Amino acid sequence: ELLFYSTFSLTSGCPEPDPCSMAVKKPNYSSVHEAVKAGDVEQLASMIRSGAGINEVDLVHKFTLLHCAAHSGSLECLHWLLWHGADTTRVTVGGWTAVHLAAIRGQDACMQALLVNGANAEAQDDRGCTPSHLAAAHGHSYTLHTLLRHGNVDGSDRKDWKPVHYAAFHGRLGCLQLLLRWGACIDDVDNNGNLPAHLAAMEGHLHCFKFLVSKMATVMHTLKARNDQGETPRDLAERFYKDNILQYIDGVEKEGQHPETPEVLAFPAHGAASKGDLLTLRRLVGSGVINMNERDDEGSTLMHKAAGQGQIQCLQWLIEMGAGCDITNDAGETPKDVAKRFAQLAAVEFLTQRTGDSNSSDEELDANNIKFFESHGVEGSTDSKADVTLGKAEKRDARMRAYHKIQELQQLLDIAYSNYRQLGGITEEEKKMKKEEREAEKAVRELEAQLEYERVRREKLESQLDECHAKINHLRASLEKQEKQYSSPAPPMVTWLQSRAAPALAASSWPPLDLLQSKYSKYWNKCASGF
């Protein structure tokens, strides 16, 4: 197993790393923890194979190897440790698990790997904080989003603080609006009766305070809310000399409404990036109000907004600060795709120079071509940079090793399925196929029965139609017979009566012939029948 991360070969059909990447001599580390911090998975495998413990604890920080990988963002080392059974429940001093450390550092890729491997998203440290509390406190919104998919949005610590309280207290607007989208309640109070709005006012976090005021039932409901000491947000702002909060409260009380739109209140940095307001953008990112790769309601980052409006200076600054160029929004578009959609040619050219043109070639590559592993999507974490610095060749080799692992496991899975079938086992897939076959056969039988019913019904209708045709023919024949009978010449007596009555009828219009015929019908019929 451990040899899988050794020197890559062509035995699995995958290409060897190029000589340039193999020419650099790997340093020898004094401890396995140093190898993990450097992201050297080959040295890690070698040291574990030589006898180092996979849950070995660092003497200084009491970190296990998994703690070190989560803290430094050594993603491939963390994958390797999880594959080989590293304990995810081990805690450091303070009660932090690897999940807590990934939340603190904003290592969202490491967080995803830990949670997929069964790590506890609700583990509490010595203060009762879950990873969600720590991610909200440090402003790592994407890491928090990963945790919310596995945990509770309203978990409380020992002070009855929920993640929304931590986000408000530390001024993390991105985390605050994310928590509200996930159903967090901004009316919850801590053990001192403080709303999140009290905490934001106390610390002078104006953007968070504005957002909270806009989301409460009414403006006055927020401004007049009192904690257990009877203090309103204004009282706390006065006590801690937060003039920006006081000025905002004065303006709102005079105007009675918010001057900003809801979108600006929730995503001020996105608005600044869209308008090209680099000064505001620097201030918001630098103060930690929002994250460099903060997503809005449509999944768009600051890069998407700046690219869509062709704000080159903002794009340049964001890239220098480490913003991701490969992150996609909810529509699957990268910032360069957005720039193309809005015909921002300068932005397209600028981003192409820094990201390359992935669409420049129509060549279809497979795993036997090394270029297959050079193309990539989002690499690693997006909330914050990892401490590990890897070159392009090292990242490519890591992808090659991961792909080789997929092939290796696929082969083992095929063998395991074969063994199971040979022992008489029926796989879930086969059960599903048989179930589908039975359902299909049942449907066919039902359709055949329905078809037979319709056939019999059609035959009955055809029989009834034939009977109707016969009746019609019979009635038509009877009608023709009667018409012939009434159209035959009148008997002699009738002719004599008509000739005798004709002069009288001609001299007078009354009584008419039909009236005489009806009056003397008895005699008329006898005459007509020839007596």
Automatic annotation (TrEMBL):
Domain of life: Eukaryota
SUPFAM superfamilies tied to this protein: Ankyrin repeat (SSF48403)
InterPro entries found in the cross-reference section: Ank_Repeat/CDKN_Inhibitor, Ankyrin_rpt, Ankyrin_rpt-contain_sf
ANK repeat ranges per the UniProt record: 94-126, 127-151, 159-191, 298-330
Coiled coil: 426-485
Keywords: ANK repeat, Coiled coil, Repeat
Family matches, as Gene3D superfamilies: Ankyrin repeat-containing domain
Alphabetical list of Pfam families matching this protein: Ank (PF00023), Ank_2 (PF12796), Ank_4 (PF13637)
PANTHER family assigned to the protein according to its UniProt record, in alphabetical order: ANK_REP_REGION DOMAIN-CONTAINING PROTEIN, ANKYRIN REPEAT DOMAIN-CONTAINING PROTEIN 42
Name of this protein: Ankyrin repeat domain 42
Organism: Amazona collaria
Source lineage: Eukaryota, Metazoa, Chordata, Craniata, Vertebrata
